[in-house]
Amino acid sequence: MNLPANLHYTKDHEWISVDGDTATIGITDHAQRELGDIVYVDIDTLDKDIAQHDVFGTVEAVKTVSDLFSPISGTVLEVNAKLADAPETVNSDPYGDGWIVKMSVKDASELADLLTAETYGELIGA
Fold first, then answer.
1. Is 86 helix (H, G, I), strand (E, B) or coil?
2. Within-domain flag for 1
3. CA dist 19 to 15, 24, 67, Å?
4. What does the DSSP 8-state code read for residue 113?
């Protein structure tokens, strides 16, 4: 199981990487394995303010649709355009080219509520 130590994680299986006042968000390796083959990523929150824990989009796999919950509060700045034509990139590279959105960081103190790689690994039994 791939759990990069430099990322923060949520109990809902999202990861977040923060660079200055911009965060990159995606779903974890564990989440993409549980979902199976991802066929569509739907993000309708571009340029919208999202509160921590609110839904910012969905990921559709062959047999299910899963909500995406924001690890932090902020504004959705960018949606990964590659996913429109190649949603399976989330399966093949969840921590790299398979990122889903970039957001502004409204309140950096919210990061303290997130899980470390070690704690997330314990949560999923990795």
1. coil
2. no
3. 14, 8, 25
4. G
